[in-house]
Amino acid sequence: KKAGNFTTTAIQKSVNVLPTQTYYTFVCGPVELDLVFTAPLLMEDIDLISTPINYISYRVRPIDKKKHDVQIYFETTPQLAVHEPSQPTKSEMVKHNGMNYIKSGTIDQPYTVRKGDGVRIDWGYAYLAAPTEANKSLSIGNYYDMKQAFIEEGKLLPVEQNYISRSMNEMPALAYTENLGTVDGNGKNGFLMLGYDDI
To answer: How many CB atoms lie within 10 A of CB 109?
Structure first.
């Protein structure tokens, strides 16, 4: 990343899809990024299969034998928990047991109201979560301004404790960033969690 704009586009080198994990490798300039999406859905473990969490692990390392400053930026939106993007949503920050969460879902929570084919979930809540650490941040904010703040400053917008959207145009970014600092030949790694609880 270069302040003001992204100067290099990541190129996907590989993907490997397995029953509970998907592995991706990207190259972005002089840095390689491994992403692992894990859904721990093991049929023999009823407690584990009922856990509504997916893990996103990442590892970065230089491929030119030099040191590089690296930051991770990840975002999603409340669209994970709506039937239609026009539905009003509420997103809020939650802290609990050393974890930071963004909790997001529809305001109406219309349990079992819809019927028929092509019905998507619009009750329950999507969660974006990360451990409470100084180099990790979560924030809710304007979809476009969030990215611009990260591009220009390397930081997320200041946290809005509660964010209400009443149309698709108002849907916020639910964003996460980790400042990995200087990455050398040993690489650095981290993770975040994405979940959905239908209550």
So the answer is: 14
Q: What is the spatial distance between Cα 6 and Cα 81, in angstroms, rounded to a whole number?
A: 30
Structure token pair of residue 27 = 């190259």
- Taking alpha carbons only, the member of 69, 98, 77, 54 closest to residue 176 is 77
SS3 76: strand
Residues 3 and 152: beta-carbon distance below 8 Å: yes
Can you tell me which residue has the tokens 């960033």? 177
What is the rounded radius of gyration, in angstroms, for the C-alpha atoms of the chain? Answer: 18
H runs (alpha helix) in 8-99: 46-49
Q: By C-alpha distance, which of 79, 104, 108, 82 is closest to 160?
A: 104
pLDDT tens readout for residues 132-148 = 898 999 999 999 999 99
Question: Strand, helix or coil at 86?
Answer: coil
DSSP assignment string, 146-194: HHHHHHHHSSPPPPPSEEEE-SGGGPPEEEEEEEEEEE-TT-EEEEEEE
Stated pTM of the model: 0.89
Q: CA-CA distance, 49 to 54, in Å (whole number)?
A: 11
CA 29 to centroid of chain Cα atoms = 22
